[in-house]
Amino acid sequence: MKWHSRKPVAIDLFCGAGGLSEGLSQAGFEPRVAVDFDPVSLETYKNNHPGTKALNADIAKLTGIELQRLAGTSNIDLIAGGPSCQGFSTHGKRIQDDPRNFLFRHFVRIVDEVRPKMFLMENVKGMLTYSNGYFRQQITRAFEQIGYRCTFATVCAADYGVPQLRHRVLFIGTRLQNLHLAFPTPTHGDGVLGLEPYVTVADALGDLPKIGRDWKNNAREYATPPQNAYQKFLRAGADRALTMHVSSPLSLQAQRLANFIAQGQGLRAVPVKQLPARFKKMRTISTGALRRDCTTLYHRLDPNRPAYTITCYYRNVASGPFLHPYEDRSLSHREAARLMSFPDRFRFEGTSITRQIGNAVPVLMAKAIGQEILKSLSEAAERRLVRQRTAA
Question: What 8-state DSSP symbol labels residue 295?
Fold first, then answer.
């Protein structure tokens, strides 16, 4: 039973390159308006979402009335977005007073002014535990004060068909009393009965050609036809020529270290005597013994596993798990985009592509969340309809 004749309307705040909007669109939403402060990311967004009004603006200066006007309706079903969260990211210095930590207040204000049926806010999982849960408590309390029931959960992108072990916290909420708040059930797992197996690096990249020493060719052909369902999904609607599949040679130091690193291994695989001085300190503890924990620095991806989190530094193998599984190089832009589940038809603009991809919401994770939200909205609408018929 359809709960209304139109597509549900969404507004995407802090939209970036558009991963969240892409997933919500695939789930059945119509993103009418998208907002971001970064003009370069917004150019990427515009080119991939031509039907959405993309606004380059400071959210602090936006009003709900303006967003409703741009959307062409005051009946907004969902406001979604991921306020910048670098101040409590686990991948950098944690700074409690970083002003980016408080962008969520403008997100809450916009929700209060627009009064959508539901909201979705995505962020790093460090938000839940940092400062004994201070930010989590601030966020839930802020939404409750404007009349929205709120809940949260930590989800892993790999659980929804994304070839990446990327963990994020999701906050969802509603002003509707008869709406059940729920998160999507995982569809994939690591040997979990009844679930599809995780999508692996090989599943994601196996049909792409090797780069070899031809670093700059931007007109490559696919190596093979699609070999699995994930590759078919990625290539749907794409041109025959492969785009953004370029890389660069490793530095002399990185190349020397890479010679010792097999698939699924990192810096710990390099003999201590072969390490530069600064890395030798990392290999030992106070007793002089070798550390037994592992590091993802210079980590070579395991083709039979999902990737680790794709960050903004995926072109620098010294910064994390970004060494190609078969070649001595970092990931290409297209490979990183595929590990984020962006379709090959998705084009990234400008010179900040690594930042656009690394900061994005994985498309298939966004799709799964969107489908669950749409299900909740539909069920709530049906319950209202039943009550109205009963009352009549």
Answer: -
pLDDT in tens, 78-95: 999 988 755 444 444 444
Q: What are the C-alpha distances in Å from 301 to residues 244, 245, 250, 292, 359?
A: 20, 17, 16, 20, 20
Task: Give me the residues paired with residue 13 across strands.
Answer: 35, 81
The H-assigned helical ranges of the chain are 19-27, 39-48, 64-71, 104-114, 126-129, 134-145, 201-205, 229-235, 252-258, 277-283, 333-339, 353-358, 363-391
User: Which residue type sits at 46?
Assistant: K
Altogether, the residues listed in the chain come to a count of 392
Which candidate in 15, 85, 150, 156 is catalytic?
85
Q: What angle do CA 198, 202, 206 make, to 5 degrees?
A: 135
Residue 294 falls in the annotated catalytic set: no
Domains annotated on the chain, with CATH: 9-188+359-391 (3.40.50.150)
Name, of 79-88, 155-164, 285-294, the range with top average pLDDT.
155-164
**CA distances from residue 248 to 47, 228, 365 in whole angstroms, order as listed:** 26, 28, 30
Q: Is the model's pTM score more than 0.85?
A: yes
